[in-house]
Amino acid sequence: MREIDVFIDTEEIADFFFKELIRRGYAPTDTELEELADITFEYLLAKSIIDEEMEDI
How far apart are CA 14 and CA 36, in angstroms? Predict the structure, then answer.
C-alpha cells in the first residue's frame, strides 16, 4: 500500500457537519460545530487514519 498526503481542515469538517445537521433538522451553534470537528479530528488520529504534522508558519 502506498502512502498519500491528506490534509484535514477542521473548518471544512465543521462546515460539512453544519450542512448535514441542518439538512436533518438540527440547528447547531458555532461552538458545537467546532467541538464536533475537533472530536472528528481526534478520532481520525486515535484510529491512526491520519498523523498530525505541525506546519511551520
Answer: 7
What is the number of helices (H) and of strands (E) in the chain?
Answer: 2, 0
Whole-model pTM? 0.76
Length reported for the chain: 57
Long-range pairs, 43-49, Cβ under 8 A, ≥24: 44/8
Q: How far is CA 42 from the centre of its chain?
A: 8
Q: Is the pLDDT of residue 55 over 90?
A: no
- Of all helices (H) and strands (E), which one includes residue 31? helix 30-46
Reading the block at residue 48, the C-alpha cell is: 491512526
